[in-house]
């Protein structure tokens, strides 16, 4: 059986850990993972930002590193992929405005393919109108958008260490949830056969 193919959607100022860590975890367990960004080609990079939780009223933001793009977005046949990963950071704020991104997200949702979204990533799910009737979690500041999109927001806990599953949708509030978020996403992928 061929390895599952996973699409990881990024953009400039994607959260560093939320792009790099899932990318490495999914490669490590044997999946094929392509990273894509509107307007970027294979071999180009996006800049990342590191969000940290240091006791302030919200996260702090620091410069991350350059994250490699492995496939051309404009030439992409997203229908050949088995699952979608949407990291957070600042990128979802403007990626949700891209028509092809919205079309792609709708395709994965309508075809019941696994989708993992973390932190601000669910902004894109809300923009694609695929959250209606679902339950999910996200960074707490995104909660009003999620609820206006028709989803039930789940407060996993105050430590940001858990993830939530609703069918093929696996969500988490921030990068400290990676162990559970990726574990639950891989479980959903394995159920797909």
Give a quick precis of the structure.
It is built from six helices and eleven strands. With 193 residues, the chain is α/β, with parallel strands linked by helices.
Mean pLDDT: 94
SS element count, helices: 6
- Give the amount of beta strand, in percent: 15-25%
- Weakly predicted, low-confidence segments: none
Helix content: 25-40%
- Determine the CATH topology: Rossmann fold
The dominant shape is globular
Give a structural overview:
By secondary structure, the chain is α/β, with parallel strands linked by helices. The protein has one domain: Class I glutamine amidotransferase (GATase) domain (Rossmann fold), CATH 3.40.50. Helices cover 29% and strands 25% of the residues. The chain is built from 6 helices and 11 strands. A 6-stranded mixed β-sheet has the order 3-1-6-7-11-10, with helices on both faces. Helix 5 links the parallel strand 8 and strand 9. The mean pLDDT is 94.
Q: What's the structural blueprint in terms of helices and strands?
A:
Layout: E1 5-9, E2 14-15, H1 16-28, E3 32-36, E4 45-52, E5 60-68, E6 83-86, H2 91-95, H3 99-110, E7 115-118, H4 122-127, E8 135-136, H5 143-148, E9 152-153, E10 164-166, E11 169-172, H6 178-191
Notable traits:
193 residues; three-stranded mixed beta sheet; 6 helices; 11 strands; globular
